[in-house]
Amino acid sequence: MKRTSLDSWIKEKIGQVSKEELKIKDLESYQLKRLRETLQYVKEKSKFYNKLLKDVNLEKISSLNDISTLPFTTSEDIKEQGTRFICVSQNEINRIVTLQTSGTTSHPKRIFFTKEDQDLTIDFFHNGMATLVEPGDKVLILMPGQKPGSVGDLLKKGLERLGVESYIYGLVDNVNEVLKIITEKNINSLVGLPQQVFALAKYYKYNKNTDPISLKSILLSADYVPNSIIDELKKVWNCQVYEHYGMTEMGLGGGVACDAFEGYHVREADLYFEVVDPTTRLPVPNGQYGEVVFTTLTRKGMPLIRYLTGDISRIIEEPCPCGSPLKRLDKVLYRIEECIKLESEKILTITQLDEILFSIEEVINYDAYLTKLGNKECLSINISSPFSTGDCLNNAISNKLLSSATFGELIEKKKLVLDIKNKFISLDQSDGMHKRKVKDLRG
Ligand SMILES: [Zn+2]
Fold first, then answer.
1. Span from the CA of 247 to the centroid of ligand 1 (angstroms)
2. How far is ligand 1, taken at its centre, from the CA of residue 346, in Å?
3. Is residue 167 within a helix (H) or strand (E), and if so which, with residue range?
4. How far is the CA of 10 from the centre of ligand 1 (A)?
5. In contact, 262 and 316? CB cutoff 8 Å
6. How far, in Å, are 365, 429, 435 from residue 423 at the CA level?
7. Distance from the CA of 426 to the center of ligand 1, in angstroms?
8. What's the 23 CA to ligand 1 centre distance in angstroms?
9. Which is nearest to 316 in space by CA: 271, 365, 364, 257?
10. What are the sequence ranges of the domains in the chain?
11. Neighbours of 394 (CB within 10 A)
12. What pLDDT, on the 0 to 100 scale, is given for residue 427?
């Protein structure tokens, strides 16, 4: 098994020159040094942190564990005080990313990057992509990439450094067209959103007129990646399917799977990860689930200290089968804000539904709503399917949910009522880039 490509990259970044294995002790002293420098820097340069860290004595941060004495940064802080985070002059800001936020009254969330910050992302994409492609391969990027500094643009630049040719298509708006490009340009690797690449695979599988294509790897990013989608892609294209974890606040990239396909190795020279209890916000031991928190160690424009991501995951305790001593973050279970508490105290998330519904052959996409029907809770699911299967498909879905460990008992005891509809869609229809979620309409 090939060791994660992040291993040698991080070893170089922390300045370990010996030919020996990456030493965690060296990595940790690098992280502590960077953490202290970052704290000093934001206290001086950022209005927000100058106030937040007013009473923090930096001399007392003498080990990485001391990070738990520092205050957190929330998404709300960024929304409300965006520009107060900035540590450089306005003309040093090279790119501003505005993120969609929920609620109509809240300010948009804006993240600011300098040229140096963007270069760190390119460097991560360069070294992270080495996990799945090598010089001579050709990658099709199915993510936005027209604007300079957008995710597709930075990914293309990273791939260039790796000696890998790539083409930016953007989000999949025409499946047929994408498949044609894959054939014409001899593409053998894809980077895209899970549901979009899934739709592409289904179209390829069922449309007998498409030319055969041969892929070696796929990287899925920007949304929860259901195992049911990974299984289908592997079946259709007989290729390796890797997952990337990241968010704009992390500088787009956060971590990438290795050939062991168990969680993601994280970019530890740029980001320090912790997992905390979502209620008490106290650190949880490795192996235990909690909210993912990160601190930037190398960012200049808008460094973030103990940023609460809203993602639930855990640090995997066991050493990685690939042999790297780098930290691994497990697959994200769900986002806290997308988690709906049912009256039975059980929780409902889109990720649970994804796993169940995408394993049904006829399902290509769906919307889900939770409503009230009299005094009962009702889960409405609108399935998009390229097969006109009517009630037959609806029954298959009901049965699958009924036999699931997550919802079976609730449905059987009639605590949760199902309302399933399906509509025919042409296989070449695809969605835009938005985080999919179950809408809570219980009022
Ligand atoms: Zn590994």
1. 21
2. 33
3. strand 165-168
4. 13
5. yes
6. 10, 13, 21
7. 39
8. 15
9. 257
10. 6-118+257-336, 132-245, 339-440
11. 17
12. 60
Q: How far is CA 426 from CA 176, 323, 384, in A?
A: 11, 45, 9
Concatenated DSSP letters of 89-111: -GGGEEEEEEEP-SSSSSPPEEE
The domain made up of 339-440 has a fold known as Alpha-Beta Plaits (3.30.70)
Q: Using the structure block, give the residue that is written with the tokens 């195992």.
A: 227
Spell out the per-residue pLDDT of the chain, length 443, in tens: 999 999 999 999 999 877 788 889 999 999 999 999 999 999 999 999 999 999 999 999 999 999 999 999 999 999 999 999 999 999 999 999 998 766 555 688 999 999 999 999 999 999 999 999 999 999 999 999 999 999 999 999 999 999 999 999 999 888 889 999 999 999 999 999 998 999 899 989 988 788 899 999 999 997 788 999 999 999 999 999 999 999 999 999 999 999 999 999 999 999 999 999 999 999 999 999 999 999 999 999 999 999 999 999 999 999 999 999 999 999 998 889 888 999 988 889 888 999 999 999 888 888 899 999 888 899 999 988 887 677 888 888 999 999 988 889 889 988 899 999 888 776 655 555 556 788 999 88
Task: Find the 217 Cα to ligand 1 centroid distance in Å.
Answer: 17
Alpha helices in 19-111 (DSSP H): 24-45, 47-52, 75-81
At 401, give phi and psi (nearest 5°).
Answer: -70, -35
Per-residue confidence (pLDDT) for residue 10, from 0 to 100: 96
Terminus-to-terminus CA distance in the chain, angstroms?
51
Centre of ligand 1 to C-alpha 288, Å, is: 19
For domain 132-245, the question of CATH label 3.30.70.660 is answered with: no
Ligand 1 (single-atom ion) residues, CB below 5 Å: 4, 258, 260, 320, 322, 324
Strand partners, 117: none
Q: How many whole angstroms from 354 Cα to the centroid of ligand 1? A: 26
Ligand 1 center to 257 CA (angstroms): 7
Cα separation, 189 vs 213, in Å, equals 11
- Ligand 1 centroid to Cα of residue 324, in Å, is 6
CA of 3 to the centre of ligand 1 (A): 6
Same CATH fold, 339-440 and 6-118+257-336?
no
- Architecture of the domain made up of 6-118+257-336: 3-Layer(aba) Sandwich (3.40)
Angle between helices 115-129 and 6-13 (to 10 degrees): 140
